[in-house]
Write a structure and sequence with these properties.
The relative contact order is 0.10. The strands form 9 sheets. The chain has a 7-stranded mixed sheet, with helices on both faces. Helix content is about 30%, strand content about 20%. It starts with a helix and ends with a helix. By secondary structure, the chain is an alpha/beta fold. The longest helix is centred in the N-terminal third of the chain and has 17 residues, at about 105-125. Bound molecules: adenosine-5'-monophosphate-propyl ester. Adenosine-5'-monophosphate-propyl ester binds near residues 259, 406, 495 and 518.
Length: about 650
């Protein structure tokens, strides 16, 4: 670990960035000009069983393959490698339950748990290449399951515990999983969230799953299906196995993580092993500059890519101590997050703009209740961070001495692609800007016609050259991999986001350019929500869009037309919300549902969501000359006006 930031962290930020500015520039330039040399050196962050023959095979774009023929195992790199040295008795995780109970698991303890579960999985017939689904809340068993799968070479697909039954079954079907690891439930905000029930329902729609392993957490009553369902604690009791790690190829899949795109079907983003590992470990070092004794707290859910890369793989490869917190950051009170920072002397805190805005709303007095002087670096991810939230975080939490590391990346990119490189040399920060690319990233902003835009002009964010953390493909859909990401800008990777590069060369990421919503940092497809609403028998048609929200970033608004014979009222609205909770999960529930008698359409019958959104947000709807019925526009306006009056 470089730890350069630790050495000069007493200096004010403005003075700190100057000394090594050139170091970053040189490193970034070298990474693009001589990637062979650069990655030959930086891949050394991983211990390989066999060295790669070639850094990059770019003979079949966009199917780039990194560290060709290199052999490694990530469970080995996260565990065995650390227990061979001074980290044997170091805490890998300090896990904190919502009720305050804590569990500390050392690298040695984690190694043991992972080996036992790996042996159990083998006993249940899981072999290299078989897929498993993990549907767990924030429990230690989550990283244990991911690492056990990695140990035996079984690609896993983690399904965030906030998803409902149909979302889960779709992911099980698409991944072809043979086994599911879940829990009876989880605790969140003082309530029990039941999970096993959701699995039972999801499995009615799938055929591939042979066994379900159930972790006991809440003690909730669950149905255990004979010979299919097994208790985790029974399976691991009195075992002390060692499982030889499978020798994996650099380009063998490590996991599949489903994310939303612009059509109804979620995309199964497939990450490989070698390039991914090299990327997540290096980017964590470059962006945050952790040192050996740091406590790192990535306060995301382990079920999202942020948790995969920066709760599990990167910090373990680097041998760090991570905080893992089970529950809600405002339970039992709005000072919970700050209390954890104080109690565990967190040094590096990585959270989301929604969390910051939520805590900001509650007020700085809750932060002042606790000693936050252990903090050295503050991170942000998931959405654009507005300058006001940035400033609040910087001044009130970091006391003007902790850099804000705003990291821009995506499920597809594997790890950070844009972020201030505090571990190399901190740039002067601008509130709301992600600053500059990570080494290896060649960003470009294109206009509609495919030409690069000028500084200060808004355009589409893309990355010209491949980088080691990029996904291998989309599960079962290589054609969509190409068409969704690489066709729009002539082979460059297209992110789906808008961005600006300013006159000083700083990048500003501005949010999605496509029909994907970002609600509290959750990436949701407009069409997924519309598809779920339309399955209600009362509904004829619907249009869903995101409305700017001061805390969540965006909130979900749905306009719905009911079929003849049905009434669009509060009851129906609640019924629709209830069904979405069951099928897609609570994160997808619209915040507003408005009933209208028709929606604006083109003459060919296509619903004009753009017009619905513009009218509802009181903006100019643009060209509406192709509109079939202008009456609907007035109705939308009236519905919004009515809503405004009612909600005061
Ligand atoms: O719109 C961007 C936004 O989150 C999207 C990626 O979502 P997901 O794949 O779920 O991964 C989230 C965690 C990496 C992006 O397309 N996004 C993420 N980080 C930022 C951001 N937008 C602006 N600034 C960020 N720092």
């Amino acid at each position: 670990m470089q730890g350069s930031s630790a050495n000069n962290s007493a200096l004010p930020i403005e003075e700190r960035y100057h000394p090594g500015k050139e170091v970053y520039r040189r490193l970034h330039e070298e990474s693009l000009e001589n990637p062979e040399k650069f990655w030959n050196e930086h891949a050394g962050i991983i211990e390989w069983y066999r060295r790669w023959e070639k850094v990059l095979d770019d003979s079949n774009p966009p199917f780039y393959r990194w560290f060709v023929s290199g052999k490694l195992n990530l469970s080995y790199n996260c565990l065995d490698r650390n227990i061979k040295n001074h980290r044997r008795n170091k805490a890998a995780y300090i896990w904190i339950a919502e009720d305050g109970t804590e569990k500390i698991v050392t690298y040695r303890g984690l190694h043991k748990r992972v080996n036992v579960l790996a042996a159990v999985l083998r006993d249940l017939g899981i072999q290299k290449g078989d897929r498993i689904v993990i549907y767990l809340p924030m429990l230690l068993e989550a990283p244990v399951a991911m690492l056990a799968a990695a140990r035996i070479g079984a690609p896993f697909s983690f399904v965030f515990a906030g998803y409902g039954a149909s979302a889960l079954s779709e992911r099980i079907r698409d991944s072809g999983a043979k086994l599911v690891i879940t829990s009876d439930g989880g605790f969140r905000g003082g309530k029990v969230v039941e999970l096993k029930k959701v699995v039972d329902e999801a499995l009615q729609e799938t055929t591939s799953v042979e066994n379900v392993i159930v972790v006991k957490r809440t003690g909730t009553e669950v149905d255990m299906v004979e010979s299919r369902d097994l208790w985790y604690h029974d399976l691991v009791a009195d075992r002390n196995d060692y499982v030889e790690p499978e020798v994996m190829d650099s380009n063998d899949p490590l996991y599949i993580l489903y994310t939303s795109g612009t059509t109804g079907k979620p995309k199964g983003v497939v990450h490989g092993t070698g390039g991914y590992a090299v990327w997540v470990a290096n980017t964590l070092e470059w962006a945050f500059g952790p040192t050996e004794d740091d406590r790192w707290w990535c306060a995301a859910d382990v079920g999202w890519v942020t948790g995969h890369s920066y709760i599990v793989f990167a910090p373990l490869i680097l041998g760090l101590t991570s905080i893992m917190y089970e529950g809600s950051i405002i339970h039992p009170g709005p000072d919970r997050l700050w209390k954890i920072v104080q109690d565990y002397a967190v040094n590096l805190l990585y959270t989301s703009p929604t969390a910051i805005r939520t805590l900001m709303r509650y007020g700085v007095q809750y932060a002042r209740m606790h000693d936050l002087s252990s903090l050295r670096v503050l991170g942000s991810v998931g959405e654009p961070i507005n300058p006001a939230a940035w400033q609040w975080y910087y001044t009130n939490i970091g006391k003007d001495r902790c850099p804000i590391i705003d990291t821009y990346w995506q499920t597809e990119t594997g790890g950070f692609v844009m972020a201030p490189a505090n571990g190399i040399s901190l740039p002067l920060l601008k509130p709301g800007s992600v600053t500059f690319p990570m080494p290896g990233i060649d960003p470009v902003i294109y206009g509609e016609e495919g030409a690069e835009v000028k500084p200060g002009e808004k355009g589409y964010f893309a990355i010209r050259k491949p980088w080691p953390g990029m996904f291998l493909t989309l599960n079962n859909d290589p054609d969509r991999f190409r068409s969704a990401y690489f066709d729009k800008f002539n082979g460059a990777y297209y992110s789906g986001d808008f961005a600006i590069r300013d006159q000083d060369g700083y990048y500003w990421l501005l949010g999605r350019a496509d029909e994907v919503l970002n609600v509290s940092g959750h990436r949701l497809g407009t069409i997924e929500i519309e598809d779920a609403i339309i399955t209600s028998e009362e509904v004829a048609e619907t249009a869903v869009f995101g409305k700017p929200d001061p805390v969540r970033g965006e909130s979900i608004v749905a306009f719905v037309v009911v079929k003849d014979g049905f009434t669009g009222d509060l009851n129906l609205g609640n019924a629709i919300k209830g069904r979405i909770r069951e099928t897609l999960g609570p994160i997808y529930i619209p915040h507003e549902i408005h009933f209208v008698s028709s929606l604006p359409k083109t003459r060919s019958g296509k619903i004009m969501r753009r017009v619905v959104k513009a009218v509802a947000l009181n903006q100019v709807p643009g060209d509406i000359s192709t509109l079939e019925n202008s009456v609907s526009v007035d109705e939308i306006r009236d519905a919004i006006e009515e809503f405004r009056k009612e909600s005061g």
